[in-house]
Amino acid sequence: MITRETYLRRIATATDRAPVTSLLGPRQCGKTTLARQFVSTRKATIFDLESEADVRRLSNPELVLGELRDFVVLDEIQVLPMLFNVLRVLVDRPDSDTRFLILGSASPDIVRGVSQTLAGRVEFIDMAGFDLEEAGTDNLRKLWRRGGFPRSCLAPSETASLAWRRAFFRTFLERDVPQLGITMPAPAMRRFWTTLAHFHGQVWNASRLGRTINVTDKTARNYLDLLTGAFMVRQLHPWFENTAKRQVKAPKVYVRDTGLLHSLLGIRDDRELLGHVRVGASWEGFAIEQVLSALRHPHAWFWATHSGGELDLLVHIRGLRIGFEMKFSEAPKVTGAMRKTAETLALDHLFVVCPTTHTYPVAAKITVLSATDIPGLRDRVNAL
Q1: Single pTM value for the model
Q2: What CATH class has 5-126?
Q3: What is the domain partition of the chain in residue ranges?
Q4: Measuring CA to CA, which residue among 74, 81, 97 is closest to residue 22?
Q5: Which has fewest Cβ within 10 Å: 135, 318, 329, 369?
């Protein structure tokens, strides 16, 4: 079992600061396992709201929860959204010292319920699958190929990993998609997902996506926003700079887990991945997720112009502008276009993230960053 120390520390800090901590993320990313690890050394009461027995125990929730102390874990809280009002009443009591850890797969209902009902009383922690720090840099290629969902990443074989991802995706289409408010047949949604996979790393085109499932541009956009809220898709929005060039205004879209992406693209192993026409886009999405996980930075953008200038990822940290280019190359070249982009955006540093074996500077304020050094990226950026 992989111990997810960073998340455990974040939960400990959040529960010290707020009476309610909300752990959100896609289904099967390890939320329940993490919560049980956290309370294993603490006095706690756990309710699994997908268990009929636990739901019956909460038939009078204000009475039952009001008598509990220390830690209370409410898993899959979206099953009983009326608990949000109960929690507000309980944590507002003057003598309340109970800490509630609520878990749920992201959906419009749970996010809206927590944000509106528990405003000022809750701290959010967004969770994803394994990253390079957790899986280990020796497993970089496997993590990229299989994705970060624990049961996929830790499966005993490639066949078992692929079978799990296919089963997960079927469950997502048949169970989770309707809960998100998307009312369409599973085959049509599968076509939408497959087209989205081929758009991975490209600028969003609502018309083309909408035509695959025979819906309007507005409906396709709404579906994309719902899938983004479910942590299945990342929309990277454009950064606008005051230049004379026409800049791209639509977001770029990525399937956040590359294991699911590869399943949708029909990629089964390393050989097929490295020979696939979308290998560069797959690497780009994987590297972006790993960089953002390492930096623990919620705000990021890309930049592009219609004349060809672009930057894969832009973040602002401590007043610094840090840029990232993702290149699937063991010997990347620093091009004139990169230098021009760094100058146009006034970057304090540009990292070129590649599957190289070493990290090394190539020019003033430009560094080739080995993907195996991503877990230490935060310290590297703080040292700038």
Answers
A1: 0.93
A2: alpha beta
A3: 5-126, 132-382
A4: 74
A5: 318
